[in-house]
Structure formats: structure tokens, C-alpha cells
Amino acid sequence: MLSSLHPNLVICQNTKAHSILFTKLRDETTSSESFVRYAKRSMRLLAEDALAEFPTKPVDIHTPCGPFQGVEGPDPTTICAVSIVRSGDALLESVRDVESAVRVGKILIQRDESDPEKRPTLFYSKMPPGVENMYILLCDPMLATGGSATMAIGTLVSKHNVDPAKIIFANMICAPEGLQCMATNFPAVKIVTVVVDEKLNESKFIVPGLGDYGDRFFNT
Description:
Elements: E1 9-11, H1 16-26, H2 32-51, E2 57-63, E3 66-72, E4 79-85, H3 87-98, E5 103-111, E6 120-126, E7 135-139, E8 142-143, H4 147-158, E9 167-174, H5 176-185, E10 190-196, E11 199-200, E12 206-207, H6 213-218
Parallel strand pairs: 1-10, 4-5, 4-7, 7-9, 8-9, 9-10
Antiparallel strand pairs: 2-3, 5-6, 11-12
Helix pairs in contact: 1-2, 2-3
Protein name: uracil phosphoribosyltransferase
Keywords: Allosteric enzyme, Glycosyltransferase, GTP-binding, Nucleotide-binding, Transferase
Pathway: Pyrimidine metabolism; UMP biosynthesis via salvage pathway; UMP from uracil: step 1/1
């Protein structure tokens, strides 16, 4: 059961749209130009689902034909979308396409590719004033070992005084190992993802995965 990997895991609805887009994204023959196009379409769907996980409240409106009770989320200016640079920037832009009024934060963390465990190092973090009172949407397309994500969340909590229960971590693909790492360190953080893959390989890449998301998206 996926719930055993993390207590606050939300899987996006498995629509045909996601299935078609992910087949294109996973395909190693997909060109860089096509990868970006399919990725943006998929990330926009993810952004909608992730933003909808913040608290909602009933709201009464009037349609052209009569009254209606719907729901609304928080004021977008009370949400800070935080990207883990560089891959997270791609997802951040999709979030801003969906809701342009969100505030923006940046965290730069790099993995040591020469380290077999791919341990991360924090280089930089910049948040808007009052971030400790905001909802946080942390953006990074891939959750592999969980090292970068837990370091980013730890930075938000310890340096910027953010409540872990107000953080949603949005990503495209999770590995079970990353989910377990997150459950151990930050079980209160909600994770919204499209798919949970099988495992990590010996190089700490997600299998079957789609390769290096940042390299494929930015064509580097």
C-alpha cells in the first residue's frame, strides 16, 4: 500500500491525459523540444491538483441562472511557491501560470554526483518577507533519495520558521525510498505526486523514471 510509504501522500487522479503525457516524457527518443512541451502540459495539471490541496472554504456565488455554493482556496498572496533550483524552476513556472499572484521563494541545493549516496549541499535560500505565515508549495519534479527535499524543508523550518504542516511538496515522480525518507523526517508535510515508481538503481536514479529531468527540460 502506498499509504505505508508516507502518511500524507496524495496521488493525482490517474487520467488518460497523465498516462499519455508520461509515456512521451519517459521515452528516451522524445526530443528536447517535445519533452518541454509535454512536461509543461503535465506540470500544469499537477499544479492545479497541488494548489487544490490547501485548505478550502464554502463560498456563495450567483451564476447567471441562480445561486450556487462552491468552494475557494486561500488568497493566493498567502501562498509561497518555492523552487528547488534548477529543476524546480520548471514546475514553479507552471504554478505561476495557474495562479500568478503566488509569492516566490528559491532554494539552491546541489547533489554531489561523485558521492555514491548523492548527498546534497545547501548553497542559497531566499524567501519573501512573512513567509513564516504563508502556505508553502515546494516544487521539484523528482523525489529520488529524498536528500534534497528534506534539506529544503529543513531550511524552511529552521531558518524561515515555517510550520511543516503548512508545506505541500509537489513533484512528478517519486521513488519509494524518497517517500520513506520524507516520512521519517517530515511526516506532516503533504506530498502531491503523479506517480510512484518502482525503485532507485545503484546510481540513485528513479526506475523506470525518465532520466535527468533538469537535463532533458533545459537541454543540457
